[in-house]
Write a structure and sequence with these properties.
The complex is a heterodimer of chains A (116) and B (113).
Chain A lengths: L2 E3 L4 E5 L4 E3 L2 E3 L6 E7 L6 E7 L7 E2 L2 E6 L4 E6 L8 E11 L2 E6 L3 E6 L1
Parallel strand pairs in A: 2-12
Antiparallel strand pairs in A: 1-4, 3-9, 5-6, 5-10, 7-8, 8-9, 10-11, 10-12
Chain B lengths: L4 E3 L2 E4 L5 E6 L6 E8 L3 E9 L2 E4 L8 E7 L2 E6 L8 E8 L7 E2 L3 E5 L1
Parallel strand pairs in B: 2-11
Antiparallel strand pairs in B: 1-3, 3-8, 4-5, 4-9, 5-6, 7-8, 9-10, 9-11
Classes of the chains: A mainly beta (116), B mainly beta (113).
């Protein structure tokens, strides 16, 4: 079974600074998808960014970018110019296609606090 | 603005009672996931459906939990009888295609006393 590890239970960053959240995963698959989701105190799960494993180019969405290292099975999230609204739990997730369905597992999360 | 709708948003019930949680996936989405979130276990995948057929419910306690999709617009998760250890936030998510973005509902916070 696939596993997703986030080794930083909690992190903090000053407003306007840059922070990187770590994620590693374990799989023997070659084709899969990786995601970062954000869960603010409202508890709504919001997609931050998505990466297809067959694409070498790292995904970017405004202030959010990833460093995808397929051989190392690493998928870190970089948040630039941190804002107070970025305070949330961040979950790394792995998805692969199996037969006629998907296997979609989440890491334990990293609680990020952006400090004024 | 398409969204996944879950009801109820919050539910408090007594141990032993039946609980039904409902999810309306986004129109056109053919895959539905049920997750349970707790502080101790994080996000656990309970079950998922594709084209209304259950593909995997191995994460679900079979003796008391059941999940169904009576039609394409409704997914249900039932717990009977409920126990205090079932207290958690239950999320439904839907998507379409391969490697899709899963859209989550706002969750049902269940408290069993």
């Amino acid at each position: 079974a696939q596993t997703v590890t986030q080794s930083q239970p909690e992190m903090s960053v000053q407003e306007a600074e840059t922070v990187t959240l770590s994620c590693t995963y374990d799989t023997s698959e070659n084709n899969y998808y990786l995601f970062w989701y954000k869960q603010p105190p409202s508890r709504q799960m919001i997609l931050v960014i998505r990466q297809e494993a067959y694409k070498q180019q790292n995904a970017t969405e405004n202030r959010f970018s990833v460093n995808f290292q397929k051989a190392a099975k690493s998928f870190s999230l970089k948040i630039s110019d941190s804002q107070l609204g970025d305070t949330a739990m961040y979950f790394c997730a792995f998805m692969k296609q199996i037969n006629y369905g998907q296997n979609f597992v989440f890491g334990p999360g990293t609680r990020l606090s952006v400090l004024p | 603005d398409a969204r996944v709708t879950q009801t109820p948003r919050d539910k408090v019930t007594e141990m032993g009672q039946e609980v039904t949680m409902r999810c309306q996936p986004i129109l056109g989405h053919n895959t539905v996931f049920w997750y349970r979130q707790t502080m101790m276990q994080g996000l656990e995948l309970l079950a998922y459906f594709r084209n209304r057929a259950p593909l995997d419910d191995s994460g679900m306690p079979k003796d008391r939990f059941s999940a169904e999709m009576p039609d394409a617009t409704l997914a249900t998760l039932k717990i009977q009888p409920s126990e205090p250890r079932d207290s958690a936030v239950y999320f439904c998510a839907s998507g379409r295609g391969q490697g899709f973005e899963a859209f989550f509902g706002q969750g049902t916070r269940l408290t069993v006393v």
